[in-house]
């Protein structure tokens, strides 16, 4: 993924050099907003950047409690990362030098665990579990095209 990021960065930096600093910031802000929307829709569709589906949640099995995820209804239909993909937590930052899309606050830890597939406690002071890697932030082919189109739009539009 870092090679893809470097290739996009090299290509975009030559195009952005043609703009004024204010134009660069505006172009990067537009690209970052569109990229965030793309990431949010991909997370809502429960897909990795390569198009594969996220691994589903494991069924919650505890003695003496109700199996809420096994029941038909609202909880079963609820998708993973519903709050995590909102603009409140998935934030963008654009400056003249570059753009950044990431998670803010305490949810950044949750996002990192799922992005990398790490070992983490299921609940505070609870048992540890190895979470499968579910790539929340990443470049798909459509994202690369989106970046290209938005940057070209700004280059053509600028005086």
TrEMBL record:
Residues 54-74 have a biased composition (Basic residues). Residues 38-74 are annotated as: Disordered. Residues 38-47 have a biased composition (Low complexity). It comes from the Bacteria. This is Phage virion morphogenesis protein. It comes from Paraburkholderia eburnea.
């Amino acid at each position: 993924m870092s090679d893809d990021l470097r290739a996009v960065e090299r290509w975009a930096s030559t195009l952005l050099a043609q703009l004024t600093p204010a134009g660069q910031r505006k172009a990067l802000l537009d690209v970052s907003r569109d990229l965030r929307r793309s990431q949010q829709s991909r997370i809502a569709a429960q897909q990795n950047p390569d198009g594969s589906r996220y691994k589903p949640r494991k069924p919650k099995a505890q003695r003496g409690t109700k199996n809420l995820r096994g029941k038909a209804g609202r909880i079963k239909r609820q998708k993973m990362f519903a709050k995590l993909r909102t603009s409140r937590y998935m934030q963008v930052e654009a400056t003249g030098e570059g753009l950044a899309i990431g998670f803010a606050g305490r949810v950044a830890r949750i996002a990192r665990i799922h992005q990398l597939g790490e070992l983490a406690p299921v609940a505070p002071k609870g048992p540890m579990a190895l979470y499968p890697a579910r790539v929340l932030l990443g470049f798909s082919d459509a994202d690369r095209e989106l970046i290209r189109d938005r940057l070209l739009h700004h280059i053509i539009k600028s005086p």
